[in-house]
Structure formats: C-alpha cells, structure tokens
Amino acid sequence: MEPLSNKRKVLVQKPLNFWERIYLPAIAKGLSITMSHFFRKPVTIQYPEQKREFSENFRGMHSLKRDEEGRERCTACGLCALSCPAEAISMIAAERKKGEENLYREEKYAAVYEINMLRCIFCGLCEEACPKEAIYLDGDIVPAEYLRKDFIYGKDKLVEAPLNQ
Ligand code: SF4
Ligand code: SF4
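^ thats the input. predicted complex w/ iron/sulfur cluster below
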C-alpha cells in the first residue's frame, strides 16, 4: 500500500496580481462595508438608560409574597428548596410566637430564607413547587455586584414591602 505521505497534495500559492499587491481595492471594499453600517438602524441600545421590553414569560428576581393582610405567606415547608435543581435555596424555619399572627400567616415561617443568585438558573421550579403562592420570579434583572457574598439574597431583599409602605 502507498504511504499516506505520498498521497498529500502539494499546494501551490497563486502569485498576487498588481491590484492585490497594492491592497487598495481590498481596503476600499472593507471601508465601504463599514460605511454601509452607518446608515443601518442600530441593533444596540443605550443600557441602562434605555431598556428593552421583556417578554410576558420573563423570569426575573424572586419575591416572597405577603397575603392580603400583609403577612408573610411562606411557611418554610422547604418544597422550593427541594425542587431547585441548582440547590440555590436554603432556609431556617421557626415557630410563630404569640403576638406574631399579624406578621406570619401560618404557625411556621422562614426565619432565614436565602437564594444564591449565582447558582440560580431562573427555571421557575421553586415558583411551581410552592403550595402557598409565596414565591414568584416577577422581579427585575439581578443587578451586577463585585463580591460573591452580595449575590446571596436574604429576606431583606426577597420579601415584598409591607402593604402600608
Ligand atoms: S428559579 Fe430554579 S434555580 Fe432558581 S431558585 Fe428557583 S428552582 Fe432554583
Ligand atoms: S416559598 Fe413556598 S415552597 Fe418555599 S418554603 Fe416557602 S411556602 Fe414552602
């Protein structure tokens, strides 16, 4: 059998003609393409002054909801954390004390509730799993931060503002 090296084709480079050697036509062609883009509608927008409209099923930052009386709906059942494929949710449950009926809807509530936004893939499974309609991904885009710890969102960022605010 003939060795592979004998089957290789020898490539011969075609010599450049006069116009190719002075490069001017190629430069003029490149510039004409650049110039043609000046007269097209720009596809970029001036973010953050200008914002694109989100689609109806856009999933943004999570918010922990209150009921019609302003009480936190979350009962720290853990179903959202269990359904989260990114293991982004963690919480510590606590028992409601006497006198806290106007703060928490049920006897159990989340004393600590955290979402790691660097892990979250905004799949919406936590929202679907919640039996109390307590969590929705109806917020804005998660803003950029410099430190990893600033992407751990606690109740201060997640629970929606009380009714009288
Ligand atoms: S949106 Fe998905 S990834 Fe993000 S916290 Fe909810 S279940 Fe986890
Ligand atoms: S947000 Fe919903 S699913 Fe998650 S712990 Fe609270 S009540 Fe349970």
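The mean pLDDT is 92.
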